Amino acid sequence: MQQALGLTLLALALEAGFGYPQVLFEHIGHPAVWLGAAIDALDRALNRGDAGARRALGFLGLALLLLPLTAAGVALQAALHSLPFGVLPLAAVASSLLAQRSLHAHVDAVARALENSLEDGRAAVGMIVGRDVAALDEAGVARAAIESLAENFSDGVVAPAFWMAFLGFPGALAYKAINTADSMIGHRTPRHEAFGFAAAKLDDLVNLPAARLSALLIALSAGRNGGRAFACMARDAKKHASPNAGWPEAAMAGALGLKLGGPRNYAGAAFDGVWLGDGRAAPGPADIDRALKIFRRADAGLWALIAALWALSAL
């Protein structure tokens, strides 16, 4: 386990310092893009028949994705660990499964765009959320950015780091595949409600510990609003439609003294989301900046936790 914890710390440091190089993205793409292509191919090949057949084939498709991918992850980790200083290239590859730097950059871009104009803010937030943004006012843009920051701190940072710390590179790789599958096919649409059932349920399961840990880190990073963050988390987290997203979002709402969530539209259809928190309902760019400050503190807390576990494992 010490080896996996060390790998996680090094991968976090590399991703925070350098992100995913643009030159690599331009020439070979990104692991999420490769996973997306594989999931799309499985969807086109297997998603057919009645609801029962689609659900069964969804389980098969997920197995066809995860089994060879995890085996490849195990083989790559073993091969690199057999080399002198092989942990360095392994950490560089593993860093591509984390999103500290890119998440901060995308959410910060929303704040800067919103300071310029509402239209720029809508365009920027449309890059990171799935909801319809054309009718969002300034408060709606800011809420969407803050909610995305809180949820993706869990999904894009804490969860892959958690599974990497416990199961090494193969664990983080498998998590990334499950999370990508859920984002692509885990929706209650006529095409994917049955076929994506396995991906959605497995994603709920693998995100369960990280969502609670993310909320705890956010609440502990809230300063004098820490008590309010814990109270909001305890009261409102389970109101969310997702069994996991409500935890970091409720903690962030309490930490900022805001109301997050509420009604929104997806693909032209209204979704009557619950409100999380009991503070102001009209955040602005300054509140996005406050949320980013909490994110940085919470991320540092994650580093500290993994470093402490690494030190303890060496005793």
UniProtKB/TrEMBL annotation:
Q: Which segment of the chain is annotated as a signal peptide?
A: none
One annotated GO molecular function: threonine-phosphate decarboxylase activity
How this chain sits in the membrane, per its record, is: Multi-pass membrane protein
**GO cellular component labels:** plasma membrane
User: Where does the UniProt annotation locate this protein?
Assistant: Cell membrane
Q: Which GO terms describe its biological process?
A: cobalamin biosynthetic process
Provide the transmembrane region boundaries: 58-80, 157-178
InterPro entries, alphabetized: Cobalamin_biosynth_CobD/CbiB
The pathway this protein participates in, as annotated, is:
Cofactor biosynthesis; adenosylcobalamin biosynthesis
Q: Which Pfam families match?
A: CobD_Cbib
Q: Which UniProt keywords apply?
A: Cell membrane, Cobalamin biosynthesis, Membrane, Transmembrane, Transmembrane helix
Cell membrane keyword on record = yes
Q: Which family does it belong to?
A: Belongs to the CobD/CbiB family.
What role does this protein play?
Converts cobyric acid to cobinamide by the addition of aminopropanol on the F carboxylic group.
PANTHER family in UniProt: COBALAMIN BIOSYNTHESIS PROTEIN CBIB
Q: What is this protein called?
A: Cobalamin biosynthesis protein CobD
Q: What gene name is given for the protein in this entry?
A: cobD
